[in-house]
């Protein structure tokens, strides 16, 4: 019998058919792989510092304040260990004191996170266990913030005291500032939850308004900037 690739078994015929269809179909543009590769090669977390014009990794990562797990694999040539170590070091330098870094020795290279589930799973487990209550407090912080915000919007209670209480709930790490993205996302979720009792504002509109209060354009709101928010503009309860 003559051995011909793609014709010996039904599965080969199926794969050959699908491969031909994929390569010749208008739905597939080979250039898409080039674009994906180029985008990955040129991606950076760095941002330009407005005051100096310098490109800074620290400035680009300044909003990452949540607990972070960074894993490096010694045989990974796509995302080498030195880059993972740098990310962990920068996070700690900008004030994030809840950063875990694991460096794994594996023969699987970049595919380690898919194939070496024991090592990767152990790293994730260790990271979660070093958080108080197994990181469950992170969800509790968000729930508490949402509860306070929901109460303020529903009761139209936007006093300085209630706004301060909400600020401190959002600023669980006592940084003296809160992320615009976090405030916007939380506010949008609460607005959706209130449904007919709130104006139908989009997330983009909410973000745009909150950013207008960010006087130094650093993506964060200080306490004074947060207190200047007029939440009644975001959600007006329908009376009657």
From TrEMBL:
<dbReference type="InterPro" id="IPR008220">
    <property type="entry name" value="HAT_MetX-like"/>
</dbReference>
<dbReference type="InterPro" id="IPR002048">
    <property type="entry name" value="EF_hand_dom"/>
</dbReference>
<dbReference type="InterPro" id="IPR029058">
    <property type="entry name" value="AB_hydrolase_fold"/>
</dbReference>
<feature type="domain" description="EF-hand">
    <location>
        <begin position="162"/>
        <end position="228"/>
    </location>
</feature>
<protein>
    <recommendedName>
        <fullName>EF-hand domain-containing protein</fullName>
    </recommendedName>
</protein>
<dbReference type="GO" id="GO:0005509">
    <property type="term" value="F:calcium ion binding"/>
</dbReference>
<dbReference type="GO" id="GO:0006535">
    <property type="term" value="P:cysteine biosynthetic process from serine"/>
</dbReference>
<dbReference type="GO" id="GO:0005739">
    <property type="term" value="C:mitochondrion"/>
</dbReference>
<dbReference type="GO" id="GO:0009001">
    <property type="term" value="F:serine O-acetyltransferase activity"/>
</dbReference>
<dbReference type="InterPro" id="IPR011992">
    <property type="entry name" value="EF-hand-dom_pair"/>
</dbReference>
<dbReference type="InterPro" id="IPR018247">
    <property type="entry name" value="EF_Hand_1_Ca_BS"/>
</dbReference>
<keyword id="KW-0106">Calcium</keyword>
<dbReference type="GO" id="GO:0009092">
    <property type="term" value="P:homoserine metabolic process"/>
</dbReference>
<dbReference type="GO" id="GO:0004414">
    <property type="term" value="F:homoserine O-acetyltransferase activity"/>
</dbReference>
<dbReference type="Pfam" id="PF13499">
    <property type="entry name" value="EF-hand_7"/>
</dbReference>
<dbReference type="GO" id="GO:0009086">
    <property type="term" value="P:methionine biosynthetic process"/>
</dbReference>
